[in-house]
Amino acid sequence: MFRRFSANFAVFSMYLDFLLIWASLTIAVEVRPLLNNLPFVKPILEKTTLPWFFYLIFPALWIAVLMMFSLYDGRKNLRVIHELSSLVLGSGLATVSMAGVLYLSYREVSRFLFFSFVVLAVFLMMIWRLGYRFVIRIKPLNHLRSRKVLILGAGSIGRKLAEQIREQTDARLTLVGFLDDDPGKQHDSSEILGRLSQVHKIVLQHAVDDVVIALPRSADAKMNQVVSNLHDLPVRVWVIPDYFSLTLHKASVEEFAGIPMLDLRAPTLTEYQRIGKRAFDLVVSLLMFPFLLPIMVVIGVLIRLDSPGPVIYRAKRVGENGRLFMMYKFRTMVANADQMLDKVVRYDELGRAIYKTPDDPRITRLGHFLRKTSLDELPQIWNVLKGEMSLVGPRPEQPALVEKYAPWQRKRFTVPQGITGWWQVHERSDKPMHLHTEEDLYYVQNYSIWLDFQILLMTLIAVLRGKGAY
User: Fold this and answer.
1) d(CA 432, CA 354)
2) Tens digits of residue pLDDT in 46-80
3) Is 2 inside any structural domain?
């Protein structure tokens, strides 16, 4: 939920930098009159009063410049020297930009005040980053945060990668072992855990996070089978060298343990798109929460009065990149609804199961109203705050249905799953679940923060109309 390379941590870094820059400006203004006795400082008779909007413009401008230098992209700042260089260079450009703002708007600011503000802000932003790096080097934390790597292929390329992983302590990678079909290699090394066909079992057994394919070109057929076996597992898949045809949605070249590789599960969103989406989710959710909480309390009381059973229904769903999580909803069915599923399921002309129907006998009286108004989805705001879901995106799917997906349908999991999405605002529940993947892929391929905003507005209109929801 809160890792160094996650969107959550990037948003946290931006918020913390904003507060430190604001605090530095405030401190510089307050302390400046106390420094009149310094020989190189021109005395001022009274405290400087800055317009209030400078306390917003300066932090916002500074952070925008730091974003241009990729300071908040953790993967581009693995080494401390890279991160501090980006901070210093970005701060230099931000200083020039802020000086230009002052020159064009408010020239009465003391030069020493401005200089002390910049130095203090850079110092504080540098100190918290160094402090964080020191903390994560503590052994218990380093152990908890390490990513487990499984290498497919124990040849020269795979062995070289293993050496790099052991040397890259900053990356916090742990080598689980190798898989290889060569009997000779299996007898010569205890690190070889089995054959390539056992990859699914080994990944589950050792809770592997990253699978690196380091097979020769002659093993193309085996490679296709290996990637197919990994489709339903929440792991990152890397290849040495390039095999673009195996990508789930798109591939990106990244440095992993010092070696350029193709990430076959490269996120659809760029780092800054992900940061922007996460910031948008947090801001909108936190603004809505005080208004939604009383409504949710009333709904909870009504559910308890309407029928026996829990207020919140927890269901296992498939999230981004195939990760499983518990999704929350207000209960709209009788307490034993899951045991009655076989009695209400229907099938279309192609034999595909349809689970959602308007005349489902398991739905309670209040449940019909909650579904019609989509109020049953309100508890998912907690999933959004936890980072398991987004406000907008493809709907999280049931694991049993995902198991029947064709490979092309799995592309919908390359973005965060959402409370509402492109499919919901156009079709609501009028279209069976197995036919909405095309709309989800449209969202995946055309994502923008403005599209999210548009979908939220269209969702509000669709809910007020009450069309297609059941």
Assistant:
1) 6
2) 667 788 888 999 999 999 999 988 888 877 777 78
3) no
